[in-house]
Every structure is written in C-alpha cells, then in structure tokens.
Amino acid sequence: MTSPSPNTDAPASSTSTHDPAVRPRILTGDTPTGQLHLGHYVGSVRRRVELQETHECYFILANMHAYTTRIDKSDEIRRDCLEIVRDYLAMGIDPDKSAIFLQSEVPAIAELTFLFAMLLPFNRVMRNPTLKDEIRVKGLGENYSFGFPLYAVGQTADILSFRAHSVPVGEDQVPHLELTREVARKFNQVFCGVDEHCDDSEHEQLGGVFPIPVADVGRVGRLVGTDGVNKMSKSLNNAIFITDTFKKIKKKMGQLYTGRQSLTEPGDVNNNLFQYVRTFIEDAGRVAELERAYAAGDNIGDGHIKVEVAEAIDKLLEPMRERRAQYEGKDAEILEILKAGTERANALAEETLARAKDAANLGFFRREIRMG
Fold first, then answer.
1. How is the beta sheet containing 25-30 ordered, strand by strand?
2. Residue 333, class by beta-carbon neighbours within 10 Å (0-12 exposed, 13-18 middle, 19+ buried)?
3. What is the pLDDT of residue 21?
4. pTM, full prediction
5. How big is the chain by its Cα radius of gyration, in Å?
6. Are 225 and 239 in contact (CB under 8 A)?
7. Does the residue 232 lie in any domain?
8. At 349, is the pLDDT very low, low, confident or very high (cuts 50, 70, 90)?
9. Is 7 a domain residue?
10. Are residues 53 and 171 in the same domain?
11. Cα separation of 75 and 78, whole Å?
C-alpha cells in the first residue's frame, strides 16, 4: 500500500531554529487552581518575565487539566482562569509581548493528545514520579479518573503544539518534560524518519516536526511552603499569595518550623528558613551576615530572621498588589487579553497540527479556527 502524499497546502513555518534573527520559542503555564503564590513567582513566573524580552512566549491556562480533580467545580475553574491572568499582569507578564491563552479554546492540543497517547505505553505514563507524587499528596489512592494520568500526556501536547524549544518550569515538573522529550523523539523517528541515534538538537534539521525541548528551571526550583515540609501549595494551606498583607505574610512566616531551640544554639543555614533568606533578601552582605550569626549561635533567633524575611517579601509584593488592584472587577478586559492570546495560539497550534497530521498520514483537509 502506498502512503498518501502530504497536503501541499500546509502553511509555511512561522519560525526556524536555524535563523538567528528569529526568537526561540517557549511554552509554559499554570493549571487554574486559585490565585498564584510566591512559589509560582520564584519558580517560574519571574523567569517568564525575563524571557518575554528575548523569546517568543506562549503562556497556557491549562483549564482542562483542572477538571482531572475538580470536575464538580467548573464555576471555580472558570473564575480561577481570570484570577491567574490578574496575577500574571501583576507579576509583570506583558500581553503585548506574550500570548496568554486558554487550553480549552485550542482544539489542536486535544487532537495531538490523542495522537501522542498512541506513542506512550500506559505503564510509562504511570511511572512518571510527578504523577505518582500528586496521587499521594492529593490522597487520591485508586480513586482518580482516567483523565488524571491522561493529563500527563496532555502536557506533552501543550508543549509540542507550539514546537517550544524550552519550558520554564519548577523542579517538580521536570519529569513531565522528560515525557514530552520522549514523545517528540518517537514521533520524529516513527513518522519523519529521524535516526534514533541522532543528537536531540538535530531533529528539526533532519526533518522532524518537533524540536526536543529542554527544561529552564528557575533559580529557585522548589520553594518549600510555610509548613516547612511540602512544596508551597494553595491546597496544602502553606502558601503566601501576592495579595497578602504584611500582617498575613508575617503570620505565615512565623509558622515555618526549623527545629532550633535557642538563640545560642548553632543553626543549620541550609534549613528551610535560609532558603527564604537567600531567595528574598537582596543584600548579599546581609545574607552572609545572617548566615554567619545563625551558624555560630550568635544570639540571633528564628523569629527575628522570619520578620526580616517577611519585610523583604512585602517589599517585593507591594508593587504587584498595586498592579493587580488595577484589574479587579475588569473581567471584560481580562477576557479580551485571553481572546487575543488564544487567537495567536490557535494560529501556531493549527500549523503544528497540520504538519503532524501530514507526517502521520492523517492530513486530508485544512481548516481555520475563528474566535467568536
């Protein structure tokens, strides 16, 4: 049997990794589970703000992924999408420089998810350590929908739909990205004839549809929450939000447990408290001074340091709170930002889907996505 020829009406590429004048592309985003917190900012969003000056940026609100554990709270998920956009704007994301878009409004992602699911053994998906950790932390046991492990495959489609070259992520998301890299390699090998022994950087040159994306982990890969145990998370009630007042920040920092008993006891400068010190106190000299005094047990208490950290966090968040307040009650404006970003996202994702379908001998017709 002969294979059908690819549809020659496929749109031209909107980017090339070999053209130095073209910005490299990134894709990252968030699942709408409430407002973003300090862990999101230092783990990924701060890096996004930097990259939007040098890269072509797409930021996804993965609202379909939110349905994997909150399908009975669809009204909250919709609300959270708008809240996250407010947080993005407050943190410094510029919608004129970056496309902020809704996963549910980009149909190419769902189609590629289905196709990519054919390339992954089920047991490989279930070995994903991030997925296993979420099942444990959320107490799901065996009581999760089929869509829950499927979202790990969906994340590969989120990224590859935009042929992203890198993905700013927190440390815990790196295993998801490795799954994406596996899918991209296998697709290019099975459908594009790319040699399995070639270097990842050569896949596009050798005719692969997808680049092999790399992780761009922020300077703080995993910020511990104020419980001093788990990663910062709204669901674990251990998060500091950008809307928190200084009073709230101080109270939450006071809950951070270190195990140190007295002012004269030498302290461990690699404990959770000092992760906050090094992350939020900008004066390197002051950080060094605190480390020296703490390690020596030089009459300095955890409480004093926690207040100093709370002051530094408040200083960081104050302009964010002010910017966020400008968008309160302006849902129509937020929706316009999402619509514009989603239009840009659909243009690129449809191009990617057309290429993938042609490579997999699924390309018969062309379509155009229009926003109503």
1. 98-102, 56-61, 25-30, 166-169, 214-217
2. middle
3. 54
4. 0.86
5. 23
6. yes
7. no
8. very high
9. no
10. yes
11. 5
